[in-house]
Amino acid sequence: MMEFTKQYPVIRYEDGRETPSMDEVLAECSLNVHINGRFTEVLHCIPEYLEEMLLGRLYTSGVISSPEDIMDLSICPSLNRADLKIRETDRTMVRLPDLHICPDHILSLSQHLLDASELFRKTGNVHSVMLCRDYAVLYMTEDLDRSRAFEKTVGRALKDRVDFAGTSVYTTGRIPRPIAEKAIWAGIPVIVSRSAPTDLTLELAAEYNLTVIGFARRNRMNIYRTSRDGSATPSFPSPVMPDM
């Protein structure tokens, strides 16, 4: 099994005293991405689920419509290089369907996301993203970048032919517009965070019927559902799912 942390010597300072110790530090990979023969970008990430990350990134950016649009994909770890041959498609964002979720389930799953992050407990240096259906966790992925964690999670689901229409996604990070865009491109109708969205996120969410939930902690959360004219709409369209 690949190790995603390394041990480094540190001096711990506490209560006026210095003590030599060892610290567990996250391993970071710089992946140079080439698409159709052209260098496109460098992605910094944990060296895990790299193929899924590339698949999820292209899909949640609207570049491809399905895994079949990637005609060839190769990764050379020693060179930190990925080469892809893709067929670009003409996708557009579409409004998302309503999704009925029990509020208690949302709060419970949000807490589970925090509790289940082993790498965060070791390093304090990762974001986590979790894809769920009803009360079931389908996938959970950790990465140093919240976008990479999101892309890896979606890519794993795409490989398994998951229907995103009935899913919700949970993240430990903030919800800026680029993250909301990824949820919409993927077709995920609900996004939940322990942190906050931005105004641009909520404007986009109103246009595409994305339910945004922020500050989901313990027994409370903020549910952001607004219509295109800016008026509030019911937080959970009836009927709400019963407790399981």
Automatic annotation (TrEMBL):
GO terms for molecular function: sulfurtransferase activity. The keyword Cytoplasm applies. Keywords: Cytoplasm, Molybdenum cofactor biosynthesis. It comes from the Bacteria. InterPro entries: Cytidine_deaminase-like, FdhD. GO terms for biological process: Mo-molybdopterin cofactor biosynthetic process. The keyword Cytoplasm applies. This is Formate dehydrogenase family accessory protein FdhD.
